[in-house]
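Q: For a teaching handout, I want to show students what a protein-ligand complex looks like in token form. Below are the inputs, and the small molecule is adenosine monophosphate. Please produce the holo structure.
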Amino acid sequence: MKILVIGSGGREHAIAWKLSKSEKVEKIYVAPGNGGTAAEKKCENVPLDKSPASEEGQNALIQFIRREKIDLTVVGPEDPLAARIVDRFRVAGLAIIGPDQKAARLEASKVYSKAFMKKYGVRAAESQDFSDPVAALVYAKKHFDNGAAPLVIKADGLAAGKGVVIAENFFEAETALSSFMKDKSLGDAGTAVVLEDFLVGKEVSVLAAVSVSPGKKGSIRPFVSARDHKRRFEGGKGPNTGGMGSIAPVPDFTPAAQQDFIKSILEPTLRGIEVENMDYRGFIFFGLMVHQNRCSLLEYNVRLGDPETQAVLPLLDSDFSELCFSILDGSLDTFPLKWKSGAVCAPVVVAEGYPGSYRKNDTITINEKDFAKTGTQLFIAGAQRETKNLLAEGEGAELRTSGGRVLAVSAWGSNADEAWTRAYEAIKFINFEGMAYRKDIGREDR
Ligand code: AMP
Ligand code: GLY
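A: Here is the structure, written as tokens, with adenosine monophosphate included.
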């Protein structure tokens, strides 16, 4: 069969790589893809004129799928999902993995997702939402007058990781509220905000497959747990990033915490998706705060996480294309979801300056022979193949940095320590000007 993967990051490289392992999959198109998917087995990049988050871009993809007789589409990022790609593809009779627009709001609107959590009893931090800046300020003032705890300010809409501010005092809250609501620093995304109590604990990411069709009993099957490391510097310090590396599974996510997650978060979420009559056949991501084996939900994402996918998919011991079809045809409940033993450590290598403005267009050299010996997997995020010479596109072409997060090295080990050692051994065989990474992925919890 032929599959289309939409997206251009490390997550999409990992999805395409995992799909390429399936005997049933003959070809994977990646739109637009990156320098990693350009050279991956069975893969071909599809340049895009229009964004897949626009109606025109989606219509162009529908035509492409019909022409190439593609059997299934997997969407990586959230923007096309929020922009109704699943609804349009299903009307066109095409098989696609993802939530319909209503379900996509679980990520696209924090106000909606918090209301959903409250309605269905999904455990989460206390919060209130505001579209009136003055009322938001009054609430913030009261919060700080009553005690010293930080206040979490969340912009309602999609903000590419820039929509959450943890205000330590009223002044910081005022600055953030003014920037979001008055100055519209995030455009429409900050018109409304959620003000939320600060939770202490350790963060855990749970990715899961979800299959709910309107009017039918649904199913959610969680994957092995994972942890992102969002801070730029070692020791969990410095500015937030799109993710400096991930591990799976999370050693401190105990069986007791997992049980609590199922009861307090997963089951009520499934009930809510069913009762709201969503057509949600895709992936869901639970961002958890865990404290003393008690889980609270920080956020839903309606897709696989990045960079968590780069650590989780290498542990999946089932056919990913078959998993996708079980999600679509309603047989997810009995799908043989199997996991390899051991652990994965997947540090991300970034460009100099990231997450501020960063170096670009540096040549990446990889000592392929020695890298291959380490048995680790390279997932490209922000790098392209030099395409001046079209004949050399693919493996022979030069790889150059194009994004802040450039690549991840995903290393398996029989335990977390072994995975960590292998990952950092393999990184030594990669080189580009200004490359940087954290050495404590999996050794720190932030
Ligand atoms: P979100 O997009 O809602 O996951 O928030 C982004 C990040 O902000 C999370 O990964 C947490 O590190 C932090 N965060 C969000 N909500 C809270 C909260 N209620 N308490 C503490 N930290 C939070
Ligand atoms: N790692 C969190 C996300 O994918 O948004």
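A: Two things your students might notice: The chain has a mean pLDDT of 95. The first strand starts at residue 2 and ends at 7.
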